[in-house]
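Ticket #4471: structure output looks truncated?

Reporter: J.K.
Steps to reproduce: submitted the chain below (429 residues) through the standard prediction queue, then opened the result file.
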Amino acid sequence: MSQSTSIPKKQTRVRDHGYDNYMEIDKKVRKILKFQELFLSQTNNMLPVSRLDSLSRRIGFKQFEAGRFILKYPHVFEVFEHPVQRILYCRLTRKALSQIEQENEALLRQIPDAVTRVRKLLMLTNTGRVRLEHVRIARKEFGLPDDFEYSVILKHPQFFRLFDADDTRNKYIEMVEKDCSLGVCEIERVREQEYREKGVDAEDIRFSFIVNFPPGFKIGKYYKIAVWKWQRLPYWSPYENISGYDMRSLEAQKRMEKRGVAMIHELLTLTVEKKMTLERIAHFRMAMDLPKKLKEFLLQHQGIFYISTRGNHGKLHTVFLREAYRKGDLIEPNELYLARRKLAGLALMSPRKARVDNELVNYRRGGDEDDMKGGVRDYVEDDFEVIGNGRRGNREIGKESNGGGSDYSDESDDDSSLENDEDGYSATE
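Returned output as attached by the reporter:
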């Protein structure tokens, strides 16, 4: 293959705003999840406002930031006055608690699917084993419960074996027996569907992947030829044992490169949301014979994968499977994904709607109680204004509210990452 008809090693990285916007919402959700875990660890799942600031620093929040963050999401968190102690408390709303219960129920119902995903994950490795800690770190992506070591691994001894390595003192998960019926890649299923529904030529689609380049990606004449040749290049299946092949030839190296694309493609299809951080993919690099420079390797195939650096000042790299998404949402959503996205929906709901809902509830209860609730609400807003500014002062109960007592704007303290992009993308507006 000549230089003019080979896929360039260094590609101009083009930003896809649909995936970046997805990660901006995910950034807010990750912060909300930290507070949720904090509340659920407390007695009666509620926390005094006076302790909120000190405890929030343990989960990475700055001083006086917790109060402003709580008031930004009234559909997730609510502040109330304790009827006996007469001090302010904060807790999760009924909608947030319902979302947590729905996600837990979905997590338990899909344990059989989680067992299959772990079995396929082990089949992707060279030795049929993987470190327990690496799976524990990525358990949310694979849809595993927190107690997966018992509920998934130890509870299914016919599939898995858990043992301690003598040389490294690490726990490993090992498959008991390889099931050939599970050794079918997701891309092979897609190819068969394309062949049956659209009547695509079998020779053209036999080794091809679905390629959707991001908007603004420049595709030249020679690049099209290189992609066409790469699509028809044979490769070894990720589930195939390649220990007996000679890897010294140039043809074998090209097949191994394409096998690496198929390996990461299959790994992403095993996740619940068809995405995973680049750092967690790197945990499986040695076990799956993935290339060393993963980021550069994935950027060669921007039509198959997309790497987003949004969400943590450019320090977090999230790899999306492009063919699984359309307009910022999964094409084939599952029950666990829908339950998780419901929390993002609560975070994006307008704070004004929460205020209107409270007024309607108070109206049904009666006018006198409405006045009392209005006074308590002003007391809450004034108290958080004091916490947010880091000042102590006198609070007046019953003060008339005009909507300016709390900052309900959906601005993020991390918006500086939108202006100062550290990943070197060429943005296409």
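Triage note (M.O.): checked the attachment and the full token line is present. Residues 363-429 have pLDDT under 50 and may be disordered.
Status: closed, working as intended.
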